[in-house]
Amino acid sequence: MLKRALALPLLLAVISCGPALKPLPPMAPLPEPPSESPSPASMPQPIDDRTLLSLPERDFSLDLLRERGLLVPVKGIAASQIPDTYDAPRDGARVHYAQDILAKRGTPVLAADDGAILHIGTNALGGNVIWTTDPTRRFAFYYAHLQKYAKGLHDGQQISRGDVIGYVGTSGNAPKDTPHLHFQVVRIVSGKRYSDGPPLNPLPFFTQVGITR
Ligand SMILES: [Zn+2]
User: Which of 13, 14, 19, 44 is 20 to 30 A away from residue 167, measured at CA?
Assistant: First the structure.
């Protein structure tokens, strides 16, 4: 009995100290960019049991993201204006795993965080799309249905939170009368293309209204 009473505080102390003692994982080299037309099978998949088993690392990364917070990536939009469609079904078989941020066509799309452009491209579902990453390269951000990209934008370019990277549109499979930004956040997982990383709901991480720098 006494042993158990002692063991619990000790265990709690170990758990609460764990993340702080853990050194930062080394920066992984970036995986290959996604193909221009990913098949539905190569779209980010839901979190599976293996991901849940690596819980300490997952929480550590999420803590970092929570500390940094994200800027709502459409000019003039606040988080409270975004209905949560993360778990909404799409096309019957798929789940959305993203947020749709409605705005007038041509509204500036802003970088949600500092970091770099990973890839500028097009695909059937997303239309004109941009992938970016955060400064720690733990997360990738996907911006889709753009009307056009910001002038001069290129792969590898360093960006700052609030930079204009594109403009809201309906490219890809967006309804032509509903311009919006499809915004997705995935975790970068070693051994996987970043576009195949497990998605997470960005809505709780939005701490800043969409304002340009
Ligand atoms: Zn969407």
Answer: 44
